[in-house]
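Appendix B, Record 12. Input sequence as logged:
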Amino acid sequence: MAKKKKNLILIIPAFLLMGTAIGIQTKGVIKQTIIGLTVGIIVYFFLRYRNKNINKTKS
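Logged structural output:
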């Protein structure tokens, strides 16, 4: 089986760009970008915590 890549950190810029795109459409670029960044960081830490627990139970 192929080794799984650890690209979890790429979720932060993805949410940042989604927030920016929404901000451009709603005329609130800075506000939506900050919200996107915050959500990206929260999701990153949540998934990192979940993956640690899953890997701990596998071993």
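Helices lie at 11-26, 29-58.
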